[in-house]
Amino acid sequence: MTIPFNRFPLLVQIEVLRQLGFQDIFLLSLTSEKMRNLIQFIKLKPKKVQYALSDNGIQVSVGFTGDDRDFHHMANMRHVPQISVKERKQVNLGGVKIQSRCSREKDRLTHCRNVKCRCTKKPPTQIWTHVLEYLEKEDDNVLEFLQTHLESLFANQPPSQLKIESTNSLQSSEIIDNVTDTIFSLDELETAEIKHFLTVRPNQKSVEIHSDLTGRPLKRISKLFKVPGLAIHESGSMTSKYMDNFSGRCLLLFNANLTSSAWITLIEKWKNKTAYHKLHAVVTRIPGNVFQEFDFGELLFESNAFPWDGLRRPRNFMFDPRIPSYRSKSIDCSDWFDIQQNGGEKWASIQIINDKIMFFVWD
Question: Pfam family example for this protein (predicted)?
């Protein structure tokens, strides 16, 4: 005999919900206000929420640990040009079921209208079990409605991470609140767009750029170089400029094109305390053989670097970039070369590992 879910005692219902995956919890929360309220008893407390925005739609994942790459998929929404009347369903996306109506209080969305959509089941081998499809004409509203809906399910107010995959989603991303970390994954990204983005969101903890940067070169005063964690995947001929202008905590540069002079300048400024006061690490990665394209001996000589003596600092460095795509890890620096800041204060260590030049500052 089948027993309807709503006939179970409240504690049993809550325990059943706790056993579900996050995608199932999200879909159930759309069925009714009663179910949404019931889900609130689970007291979900994610440490972070990631919104991946593309031209096709929105994907939301949640993380519950300190590991920035430990995410659970929760909501997958995709816009489509049309949905047949037969397939359409109305879902309550936003918490309060009010037909075709939006109301605001203190410039914040507090009620959402119903959204016409259809739910498509995905093959079990895929990481997303379902996709919720909605009409393209709803694009301007769905992202705002979705954030409001998710906030109603959480027992806390976690920070948001953005992954932006198109120019259109870059514009719509301004709707998302409490953003602390951003990944740009467009083919091309105008430097003017970065300037606008960081003007709207000046308190970024990290920015990661996978795009080719176009437009006027960024100046030293750019807010981008003040972001604590910065990763640029196509730094190319601008690598030396990025190193010279950076004033944050951790700088990661990939596909770098540079000479030893850029590193000598950086280390000299750090030693003299004229720049890089908050520095934790700088890593540059070049596409070719480092030793063929980089005079490491010259750098060590000019920086007055010498091998570790086994005493002056710990053997292992805790590399903690605080950039979502990169995990913290302990790195053995026993064969690294050490550099002392003028005045006998801090120590730093440098080494070439495979195709990377790595510079760490010890606390």
Answer: F-box
